[in-house]
Amino acid sequence: MWVPSLPITIITGVAAGAGALCLFKDMYGGVPFDKKVLAEGKTVIVTGATSGIGKEASWEFAKRGAKVFMACRNMTKCEAVRREIVLETQNKYVYCRPCDLASAESIRSFVERFKEEEPYVDILVNNAGVMETPKGVTREGFETQLGTNHFGHFLLTELLLDTLKKSAPSRVVVVTCSAHQKGKIHKEDLNMTEKYDPIEAYNQSKLANVLFARELGRRTLGSDVAVIAVDPGFADTDLTRHMGMMKSFTRFFVYPLFWPVMKRARTAAQVILHAALDPHLQDSAGDYYVDMKKSAPSELAQDYELAMWLWKVSEKWTRADAHKSALGRPQAA
């Protein structure tokens, strides 16, 4: 049966173009972290592990033999992802635990249960995050993005720090991004109650992540607790779901334009694996890595006085000392 050659030529060209685009996307994403580096015998906590980079990092840790605790808000979704990871990696030591980073009570409950179950934690991955959300606050009244992305992880890390030190050599990986370079810490209005801008609030929270990592690294010097801040790059995840252009009809035009230069979530997760498992990074003290290469963060992110100020404010606002004390008290009947 005769078929016109033009449509076949067009179809072949489209297929070849699509293949080249996928190849470019994989090459642009970078090389994977060394698959021969295993995580056997290590206990890992990953926040925000039900989707995107957190899910893929959890999968990778499980594949490499780690015991993985997925600290997530949505238990139904977490259980579905956990089953998927267990079946694919053949690692049954993957667990779901409720942990809402927008609630201090939930964070403390997570830590309390974890400490009852596990004596050590080798790797804490502070990955969960929200981006450009509508104006709102957490359970404790913090601006949503700063409260979730920074304060929640600050409190979680503080409550686990004694276990991390006991488990040394151990590591804390803080996931941030290049948005920190545009960030500013609004000292006079940290909650941005007077003038809320979702982009500025996100940038502030990402700068806070880097400042936190650097100050935590300074405070843990000599304890053999490594602290590394990582930038996974522009990844194809649902983190952008709150952005205006992604909620409107323009998404159907914008997304295809950006797709070729967006990393796959598993590719982006390699920076977490590198920070958590590379033996050469154990002496890191708040260092910042982009695509597995040590980089210099923004000038503000290197301001030690600002980092110390933010730490003190974070301690006060999260009532970290009170939560630490509560962890040691017997539960009421």
Rg (C-alpha, Å): 21 Å
CATH topology: Rossmann fold
In CATH, what is the class? Alpha Beta
Number of strands: 8
Look at the structure and name the CATH superfamily.
NAD(P)-binding Rossmann-like Domain
How many discrete structural domains?
1
Largest sheet: 8 strands, mixed
Mean pLDDT: 88
By oligomeric state, this entry counts as single chain
CATH architecture label: 3-Layer(aba) Sandwich
What is the ordering of alpha helices and beta strands? HEHEHEHEHEHEHHHHEEHH
- Unreliable spans are 14-25, 257-261
Describe, in short, the structure shown.
The protein is an alpha/beta fold and 333 residues long. The chain is built from twelve helices and eight strands. β7 and β8 form a beta hairpin.
Report on the structure:
It is built from twelve helices and eight strands. α6 (198-219) links the parallel β5 and β6 (225-231). Mean pLDDT is 88; it is low at 14-25 and 257-261. It has one domain (35-325): NAD(P)-binding Rossmann-like Domain (Rossmann fold), CATH 3.40.50.720. α5 (144-166) packs across α11 (304-318). By secondary structure, the protein is of the alpha/beta class. The longest helix is centred in the first third of the chain and has 25 residues, at 5-29. It has helices at residues 5-29, 52-63, 75-89, 104-117, 144-166, 198-219, 244-247, 251-258, 265-268, 270-277, 304-318, 320-327; strands at 43-47, 67-72, 94-98, 123-126, 170-175, 225-231, 285-290, 293-295. Helix content is 47%, strand content 13%. The radius of gyration is 21 Å and the shape is globular. Strands 3-2-1-4-5-6-7-8 form an eight-stranded mixed β-sheet, sandwiched between helices.
